[in-house]
Design a protein that fits this description.
3 domains; mainly alpha; single chain; 179 residues
């Protein structure tokens, strides 16, 4: 049986939240009972955690010389977590997603973007208003047209209404694609 998360955090000198995040990210593997083997966890923590970046040396300071390594050193595991993605890759993807999200938010604030559901509802209302106007048109103009053509007003109204409904039915069969 190993240490609890809080005990391991004290051992490591970090907060228990940092240990829980390391477990969730797959950088540290707990035992089956949920406890943590400190030796194994220390190894995994060092292998799977990207070290913080160091400040570049200023001009008046000399840059540290690289230390020669022994030839029989074992290769590292390439900072891989359990699913095959390195922590650096995951952080990069996270930053890209944040940047894209912020770009969309900014465009929405500027008024360059509209809500898709609101736009679809607005277009639907406009189309319905136009359809209703066309359906009411024969009733409005058939009497005037019939008097100018010297024909029966009711007959002209029926003919116009039939033609308008057929035309609207043809338009209703179109399937516009919204992308």
């Amino acid at each position: 049986m190993g240490l609890s998360i809080r005990a391991y955090a004290r051992h490591r000198g970090v907060s228990h939240v940092a240990v829980m995040k390391a477990i969730e990210a797959g950088r540290v593997t707990p035992e089956a009972d949920g406890s943590i083997n400190p030796e194994r966890a220390d190894r995994e923590w060092n292998q799977n955690t990207v070290s913080p970046r160091k400040r570049p040396a200023t001009d008046n300071q000399t840059a540290p010389q690289p230390v020669a390594r022994e030839q029989n050193v074992e290769p590292t595991t390439n900072n891989l977590s359990t699913n095959g993605t390195s922590l650096l890759q995951a952080r990069t993807v996270n930053e890209v997603v944040k940047a894209q999200t912020n770009k969309v938010r900014l465009a929405r604030l500027k008024g360059d973007l509209v809500d898709r559901s609101q736009a679809i509802a607005h277009v639907f209302r406009l189309a319905r208003t136009e359809r209703d106007a066309w359906l009411n048109w024969p009733a409005r103009v058939s009497a005037q047209m019939a008097s100018q053509l010297n024909i029966e007003a009711h007959d002209l109204h029926v003919i116009l209404e039939t033609a308008v409904r057929e035309h609207l039915a043809e338009l209703g069969e179109l399937n516009p694609r919204v992308e």
